[in-house]
User: What shape does this take?
Amino acid sequence: MLLGWLGVCVAASMGADGYSAAEQEAAGLGAETNFRALCSEDLAQPLQQAFARAVAAGARRFTLTIAPGKYREFALSLRDDRGPDGMELVVAGEGDAPVVLDGIALQLAADRVTVRNLVLQGNRRPAATLDVRVANEFVGDRLALIDNECQDPTGTAPLVLITASGPRDSAARATLRHTWLLGNRVEGRTPLLATPRTGRANLAELRLEGCVFSGNAAAHALEPWFTRQTTVANCLLAEHRLAGAWLRLVSPLARVRLEGGIVTNASALVCYETGPDVTRTDFPVVEARGVTLHLPAAPDPAVVHGQNVTLAPPLERLPDPGVLADRARRGQPPDLANCLRFVRD
Assistant: This one.
């Protein structure tokens, strides 16, 4: 179902036989279906029909390739609810540089989901800009979320929501690689990135590799609930607008490890939410290895266990958001060494 689609292209791109480019690019409904979109019209009924036929035919893979162009605001929903019996869903921007989509949200569900080579920017809606549900695996690669705003009046929807639809012992994994979250805003006590608060939304692992979080306004940056292992590897986490700690832990099931990279935040690195059934000692200690921490105060060893960790006061200057956004839109992988040099100049 396509939500919030405001119109069609002035003219669909037509081929020599009178068929739209999207129809010509939609492959047969065998093991794999490929669909290429050139404009907003292609992302409406043609895409929805092709995807429904692929699900009905039992296709094992559906690839949506989005060509550069001007697309109207909408929330694109592609859902295969067959769980592990379903397909692999790939949504990718075409070309060497990421395709920039203004005012667009993605709601995707399948056995495996891959989203790559896209910039989602300027989205304003009361729901997540990127909402993914998988039975087995999610991979986000060369993504950027820039200047989006989650306007949920209840203050419960994060900017990015990743859900595992399997049972409590699910082996589902999610990886964000070379992903930028820059200048986004989330209302309420909600973080930028979260896994849901339900017992059937278990991820075995959430992994962030070479990502950049900077200039975002939210309660926290990351909140992994029923996620057994969270790894943040070689990331630049340069935040000064968060209301609280960078990481909020509520479920004692969550184990967190920081590997390399730099963290600077206006407040603490970690906060724990306890309650009648959960005490502070129920939580495992966050592990940090080879990380540079620019924080108002050194973390309590009972909260963060560090190895080869450099502790320093908060940075007086933070990365120029325009420079970071330009690198993200050009698809340049985050260069941690250069980012660090830029921050410290």
